[in-house]
Amino acid sequence: MSENTQKPKSRYLSGKEIRAIAKENNKVMRALEKKKHRKAAESEFLSQMKDEKNILEVEDLHSYFFTDQGVVKAVNGVSFEIPQGATVGVVGESGCGKSVTSMSIMRLLQGPYGQICSGSIRFKSNDFKRDEKGKPIPIWERDEQGIVYEPVLDKKGVQKLDRDGNPVRVPKQRRDAYGTKLFEMEEKVFDIAEMPIREMYRLRGRQIAMIFQEPMTSLNPVLTIGNQLDEVTFLHFPGSTKEDAKRRSIEMLNLVGIAMPERVYKSYPHELSGGMRQRVMISMALAGDPRLIIADEPTTALDVTIQAQILDLLRDLKSRINGSILLITHDLGIIAEMADYVVVMYAGRIIEKGTASEIFHHPMHPYTIGLQKSKPTMDTEKDSLFNIPGNVPNPIDMPDYCYFRERCAGCVSRCFGDYPPMIQVSPTHWVACHLYDKENTK
Ligand SMILES: Nc1ncnc2c1ncn2[C@@H]1O[C@H](COP(=O)(O)OP(=O)(O)OP(=O)(O)O)[C@@H](O)[C@H]1O
Ligand code: SF4
Ligand SMILES: [Mg+2]
Q: Is the CB of residue 90 below 6 angstroms from any atom belonging to ligand 1?
């Protein structure tokens, strides 16, 4: 094991120091909370994509936790993109900031301690076009004569009449393949990091959906699956009736391969197996018609066969909705099977990113190479697995040199200087390591 060249700093803080940290933290947290809960005109958080092919661009994101021991820089300057229709995998060992990155995109960091401190999260949204009163504009059914009208029926199915005895008729709204009413849409780029939290309802669950590791904790145990699924339609599709919502929910359950959707619709979460619950979670994520699905360890709680089925399902659905997936896992096998691009994180930073083929066939950062070596394979005859010796630096007190230095076997003299910059080694491949810094080969 390489020796720690840094003099260990005291982990114990005096009461005075803790109070000083808390005071400083309070000041920063209050300002960030105020920004989060402000009222803001849309123009304040409208943005532009750097590359029109992308659906999401994260740039220099800093998400911190303000604790009494100091500031935990859980995400410390992360930049990556998700192209439309692509799956981007995020790997890295436990605690490297994968979940905090995804929670930042959803703006779900637990305030006031967890905050996005700086950076941009640009998302190409497909939002409802609204009239001057802020209401979504319906798309009406049309024929050669113009807008098609339909009769209004009462609860018993009898045609309603006006005061003069004429049938009441209203414009007929167009519906999608699942029978849900359609509205005019428009593309806008939002900077999620700048959005007031109350505006996030436009994106969360509808345009960006999240699938968590443990479906049991994400489903409400006292409501039926149907109730919970219908709620998504009510929330995200204005003017939906109970029948519209039920029809959509059953269709969604069908889509994720649930055999008796009517029965599952009436079931409670505890009546279903783990794999079924994860399918329900995926159907719930799909019900909002998302452009981006964030799956944080979606199969970790499932056994291998169910895991394979869920991954197949995700792949199939992604191509059906032409959406993108941000797939977070520490299982390199899953990444190899699913991802088009891979982002490798270490201690809150990205240390390498590239296409899946670049990361798997030409890993460059010593940490990525170590990760590949530590992957169990059938054809190795060794009786113990390779491990990367050493620990991640203390997150409250990160050094100003390469965070991997204490664990790195390939250190060069330059590594005793500044933190390495991101070096581009191909149009799509980047690595943060001094070994590839051409001007500094010493
Ligand atoms: N509420 C919190 N308060 C303080 N620190 C936190 C909090 N939540 C997360 N952190 C810290 O943020 C860092 C990143 O955590 P995160 O949950 O993103 O890791 P992860 O990469 O998702 O790990 P895992 O693979 O175990 O899920 C860790 O150092 C963690 O200790
Ligand atoms: S910069 Fe130096 S210490 Fe860091 S990973 Fe590269 S070789 Fe190792
Ligand atoms: Mg996590």
A: no
Using alpha carbons only, give the angle 130, 136, 141 rounded to the nearest 5 degrees. 120
Index of the ligand 2 atom closest to the CA of residue 402:
4
Which residues are within 8 A (CB) of 284 and not within 5 positions of it... i.e. 6 or more apart?
209, 228, 229, 232, 252
Edge-to-edge strand ranges of the sheet holding 54-67: 70-83, 54-67, 114-128, 185-191
Pocket residues: Cβ below 6 A from ligand 2: 365-366, 402, 404-405, 408, 410-412, 415, 420, 433-435
Q: Distance between CA atoms of 207 and 185, rounded to whole angstroms? A: 12
> How far apart are the CA of 70 and the centre of ligand 2, in A?
26
Tell me how far apart the alpha carbons of residues 407 and 8 are, in angstroms, rounded to a whole number: 16
Ligand in nearest proximity to the CA of 416: 2
For residue 267, the SS3 value is: coil
* Per-residue pLDDT tens listing for the chain (442 residues): 344 444 445 567 788 888 888 898 899 999 999 999 999 998 999 999 999 999 999 999 999 999 988 899 999 999 999 999 999 999 998 899 999 999 999 999 998 999 999 999 999 998 889 888 888 999 999 999 899 998 888 878 888 888 888 889 999 999 988 888 899 999 999 999 999 999 998 899 889 998 877 766 778 899 999 999 999 899 888 888 899 899 999 988 988 888 899 999 999 999 998 888 888 988 888 888 889 999 998 887 677 777 888 888 888 878 777 789 999 998 888 899 899 999 999 999 999 999 999 999 999 999 999 888 876 665 555 555 566 777 778 878 889 999 999 999 889 999 999 999 999 999 999 999 999 987 655 5
Which class would CATH give 15-130+184-207+290-436? alpha beta
Nearest CA to ligand 1 atom 7: 65
CA 314 to centroid of ligand 3, rounded, Å: 19
| Ligand 1, atom 2, residue with closest C-alpha | 65
Task: Work out which ligand 2 atom sits closest to the CA atom of 434.
Answer: 1
Distance, CA of 25 to CA of 15 (rounded, Å): 15
Q: Whose CA is nearest to atom 6 of ligand 2?
A: 433
For residues 328 and 343, give the distance between their C-alpha atoms in angstroms, rounded to a whole number.
Answer: 10
Ligand 2 centroid distance, CA of 401 (Å): 9
pTM of the model: 0.88
Question: What residue spans define the domains of the chain?
Answer: 15-130+184-207+290-436, 221-288
Residue 395 in contact with ligand 1 by CB distance below 6 A? yes
**What percent of the residues of the chain are helix, what percent strand, and what percent coil, each to the nearest 5?**
35, 25, 40
User: What is the C-alpha to C-alpha distance for residues 283 and 32, in angstroms, rounded to an integer?
Assistant: 35
